[in-house]
Amino acid sequence: MHADDRLAAITTRIAHAAKLARRRASDVTLIAVSKTHGAEAIVPLLEAGQRHFGENRVQEAAAKWPALREQFPDVTLHLIGQLQSNKAADAVALADVIHAVDRPSLVGALGRAMDAQDRRLPCFVQVNIGEEPQKGGCAIDDLPALLAEARQADLPVAGLMCIPPVGVDAAPYFALLAKLAREEGLTGLSMGMSDDFETAVMIGATHVRIGSALFGARTQPEAAA
Ligand SMILES: *Cc1c(COP(=O)(O)O)cnc(C)c1O
User: Fold this and answer.
1) Max CA separation in the chain (angstroms)
2) Any idea where the Alanine racemase N-terminal domain is (predicted)?
């Protein structure tokens, strides 16, 4: 299957899941996760009209996207991976949306970078929704305090993001993230990947992050997320 056929198939599946949940498909943003893939794989999706893309490493994104953006200036670039505080300035300069804000030091670094560049990017706060020690994301109990810090630092908080535990039903974790967002008065929900995006859409995802189902399996190793 060609990339544009895969894109059409995924778009149809998102629309179907949205319809089942009596949601509008246009309320779900499909982020094509292009990490590890080069311009030759990305351009066909751009030509098919896809405009939201996700990368998990600042350096890789900086190497690929400035050139692609010259051709397609209306792209929205989402940084979805763990972010080191010392890369915050580069991230703010390069990206349009940041999905993995998960600790006070990063909130501070992003706030300072946004002030310095006079550029405010919507941010998602990542929650370690399965309480897994090896995973990124703030602890559920720490979420209210982190959100308060983000507001203090003037970060535009768009919503919450999660990566549920592997190998188990993701639905309870998506439902928990949706509940936490409701409690905090947040509307954005960045959740759902290749294997579970329809479930995520039915539970309220506003942003699904889809890599392998669009691009095929990644052959290069990826950085831990
Ligand atoms: C790689 C990645 C995705 C996409 O994963 P697929 O299973 O290939 O769809 C989504 N979110 C994050 C944070 C990622 O690192």
Assistant:
1) 48
2) 13-218
Backbone phi, then psi, for 55, in 5-degree steps?
-130, 150
SS3 162: coil
Ligand 1: residues within 6 Å at CB? 33, 35, 56, 80-81, 163, 193-194, 209-213, 225
DSSP calls for 198-222: HHHHHHT-SEEEE-HHHH----S--
State pLDDT tens for residues 150-182.
Answer: 999 999 999 999 999 999 999 999 999 999 999
Ligand 1 pocket: which of 6, 7, 34, 56 to mutate (most atoms within 8 A of CB): 56
Distance 116 CA to ligand 1 centre (A): 30
Tell how far the Cα of 58 is from the centroid of ligand 1, in angstroms: 15
Mean pLDDT of 58-62: 97
List, in order of start, the domains of the chain with CATH numbers: 3-214 (3.20.20.10)
Q: Quote the pTM value.
A: 0.96
Structure confidence by residue, pLDDT tens digits, 97-113: 999 999 999 999 999 99
Crossing angle between the packed helical segments 39-47 and 58-71, to the nearest 10 degrees? 40
